[in-house]
Amino acid sequence: MTTAPPAAPPATGVRATARIHAVADGRGGTALPLLAGEGPLALRRTRGGEAEAGVVLVGAMSAPLGGDHLTVRATAGPGARLALASAAATLALPGRAGEPARYDVELDLEDGASVRWLPEPLVSVRGSDLRVHTRVRLAPTARLLLREEQVLGRHGEPSGLLRSRLTVTRGGRPLLDQELACGPGAPSGWDGPAGLAGHRAVGQLLLVDPVFETDPPLPAVLGEYAAVTPLAGPAVLVTALAADALRLREVLDKACRIHHR
Description:
mainly beta, 11-stranded mixed beta sheet, 7-stranded mixed beta sheet, 18 strands
């Protein structure tokens, strides 16, 4: 007599994926043959800029909670232009079982495509544990504008644990791979002078544009806690610290006005 192995415990949390596919429509614009959201990831078509399709991510429920795994997956075909945003800040919330939550963003840009990924800030709420991984794959002629903003805790509360990684390849070759960990349980020193130095908001702006091959931006300092760093790629990375989300956005918007072409 054989005994069946015990059944695996059911997965906790929500599993949801939002899928977006943009293509050039042949008339100078961009069409969206695929726009599908699940669970807390609702998608809405909006008016974009010239020749651009706009999509807004609308949170349909509180997420990500501990144990959730959310994925946003967007593809821009040859010559397509896509603007992605979110309607409100994302709150990383603690779950009942103490499990971490995962939030993945995957962007694929084909030849001549252009994508702007400009979500609202991610707020790490006290007691939460969130792992964020943004993966971007670009063709050599694609253009990207990407903004990430993280806020450590709501007003008057400490941060949860946040691990955030950004991985970018261009033409199959690595362009940028960096990781940030902060909050309770992060490696020691994350809030020291070589880390966030007591600031509650941290963000970055990444611009990838073939025009930088012949006209690269110069290194610069923007204010007291922001730096412009040209990357071999061609690309430029702006990193910034601030006391709160409002001041962080002001710095990143200024950098965007200077370097976005």
